[in-house]
Each structure stands twice: as C-alpha cells, then as structure tokens.
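Table S5 (text form). Sequence records supplied for joint modeling of the two-component complex.
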Amino acid sequence: MFGPVVIISAATMAGLGLLFAGLLGFAHTKFKIEEDAKVTEIEEVLPGLDCGACGYPGCNQLAKSVSKGEAAPDSCVPGGEEVAEKVAEIMGMEVSSEPGKVKLAVVHCGADNEEKKRVGHYEGVESCRTAELTTGGNIKCEYGCLGYGDCARACPFDAIEMVNGLPRIDPDACTACGSCVEVCPRNIISIEEINLAGNFVKVACNSRDEGSAVRDKCDVGCIACGLCEKMGPEEVFSVEDNLSRMDYSSYGEDDDFDMAIEKCPTGCIVELSSPEETS
Amino acid sequence: MEYFFIFVAIVLTQNFVLHYFLGICPFLGVSDEMEGAFGMGMATTFVMTLTAIITWNINTFILKAFNVEFLEYVSFILVIASLVQLVEMFLKKYLPELYETLGIYLPLITTNCAVLGLALFMVLREYNFLESAIFGFGAGVGFTLALVIMAGIRGELHEEDIPRPFRGTGITLLVAGLLALAFMGFSGLVPT
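The corresponding structure-token record, covering 471 residues in total, follows.
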C-alpha cells in the first residue's frame, strides 16, 4: 500500500523531528530561568490592559519594576486604589495615597456642532486624525475639536461619549490613562489632577490665536481678555500665549469660581460635575 | 578567491535585504534603534550561519542520499524554527533586555524569508560545504549591515523636522528605497 518513498519520507521527518525536539528539550532545561514569583503575582493583580499610563510599555514591565522596587505600588493608573492596595500587599508595603484628589481627562474645547464654524464639507473617513492630516480639518478654528470622536474610540474604558460634536468624559469611568490625549491630533485633551473638595472648572478653549482672530473663528473661544485672572480666585487662571489656562494644583476647596464664570465674555470657563456628584 | 567573492557578493552586491527584498519585515520593524538593530542582526546571523551548515548536511546526507529532495522546505523550516527557538531561550536567559527590545520580531525570524531563501539559494547554486557556511555567515553579515545602516539613518531622522505626511512608515520606506539605490552602486564589484 505504501511505497518505499512514503516510508522513507516519514522516517526522515520523524527522525529529524525527534532530533530537534531532543535538542530543544535539552536547551530548555539548560536555559531555564526562574522568574520572580512576585512578578507573576503582581501581574495577575494588574488590570492587564497594557495602556501605558504608568510610563511602562505594558503591565508585565510595570510588574517587574515594582518587584525590583523601582516603581511605586500605586503606579497603575487605571487600577486605582484597589490595585495599589493589592500590589502593596504582595510587596509588603503601605500605600501612601493623597485623599481627595483624582486625575481626569479634561477637554479644552467648547464648540459643539452648533458653534463650530465650518469652512468646507468633509466627506472622508470619519476620523479626526485623517481629517486633520488630509485637509487640516474643516472648521475655521485650527485649535478646536473636529468632532469625529477618535478619542471616544481610543478610550479603553468607554468613558468618552460624543455628544453633539464634542467628547463628554464620564468622570467615574475615566482613569486618566491618557489614551485620548495621545490620539487627539489637536491636543485638546489634557490630564489634570482635580481637587475633589473644590469646584471642578475648566477653560473650554485651546486657541492660541489673538482675541480678534478668535472672535472671527468661534463664538465660544478664549479671547485672552484676562478678566478671569482678575475675577477668579487668586493665581488660578493665567493668560499665556493668548489663552487662559487654569492651574489645577493651586486651587483649594474655598475658591469661588462664580465670578469668573459669569464675567467671561465668551463663556468659555465652564463648571463640570465632579466624580462624586455624578455617582 | 571564489570563497571571498561569495562573501562579498552576499554582503554587498547581492545583499538579501537591499537586492533580493528578502527579510524586509525585521529590516523595517527593528531598525528604529541601533541597539535593537545590532542585536537582531547578531541573532539572525547566528540563525543563518547555523541554518546554512545544518541544512547543507541534511540536504546532502539525508535528502539526497534517500532521494527525498522534495522534503527540503519542510525539513529546512524545521531546522530554522528549532534554531530560532534556541536563540530565543538563550537571549531570554542571558540578554533579557535585548529579548524585550526584539519582542515579536525574534520569533518572527522563523518566517524571515531571508533565512529560508538562504537555504534554498544554497541548494539551487549547488554550493559545497565551505561555500554554504560562508554564504550563510555572509548573508547574516549583510543583513546586519543593512539593519545597522538603516538604524543609523533613522536615529538621525528622529531629530529632523519631517513633513507631516511623511512621518512614520512613509519616511522609513523612502529611506529603505534610497538605501537600496545606494547599494546598487556596488554591482560590478564581483565578476559574474
């Protein structure tokens, strides 16, 4: 039934296979490495998202650094306190966490679909990066949100929802991993540390154009008039490069933003709901 | 002299990457940093040299002797896969940092067409044992050379203000093309 060629072929491959299998088996015992048990333990506790928010390429590398003592146990951003505690337990350490502060992604544009001033009709791929790269965007403002929702698609936690052409961030789901910051071609989103005790306010504009130019391009843009510097809490707002910025590290729980919000002529200082209120 | 010509030919004039377009995936994938590129070159050189030596023996003493030359692909791939596995074990144990840098490209040496191409060219050109060994080693050196030059250029490119549409893959492929063009200048170095 089987010719000699079939038998020889089978025997040849079987022989070679056995030879190399034996060789590799030997090499495996010779080159065996003992991984630190802590690394696998820590890796199991970590979320395994490989989001990179900790500064390492993936969870595995973070686990290794933590086990060596190079990284702090609370380095995992999406894991939050829960993971930090577990990791610290494995390492036999205490977590030192600052209560009352939470990191969140903040969107610095306030132009929704009604406010966006279009300069053309874009019919390409529904992606901000594509639109920006091919046509430079079809809205008048070169700094504003294009509204195709790359950030929402990039978010691993479904914390971003596109509402009327603007990303809305769910403060409870957001872990400040920074995926959206990276993906936004116009760098509209930033990660800020919010003081939970105080009010949560943002400057909803990213335009570094001069006041007159901003007025032409958008009705809700920052014209760098500087009223917020005077009306807002001391040393919280500062106008730089024709744009008002808010210093999130220097506001306290007693700071009152009502005057700044009320007096801003274009209304680009906006109050947001903080995580606790929405939960 | 003939051995020397085989070596020069495979390193410069008939470089696997820049002349035959074999092994492009690691050439583009790990040429981002010099360290990784050199490590990849060394790993591939090791695999290529041993592949040439072992496959020559298998081809001559087993496949030809038993008249089963049609098994060359499957047996050569077996050799290559085993060698890559061996290199991976070795690197994981002794050079873990390089292992991390190479990442997925290390197991992908298995299907690096330059390695299988080398074994098949060797059979096609009917090299003797020494010629095969030199051919294999030279192929590795040529591969490393291409990778290191590419990594050097790309290292410089990191500092440059590249026009936006060219950034990333675009400029890499353009550089690869120009490099291939430059290597054409070597043709004629080896008498055919």
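Note: Residues 33-141 of chain B form one domain.
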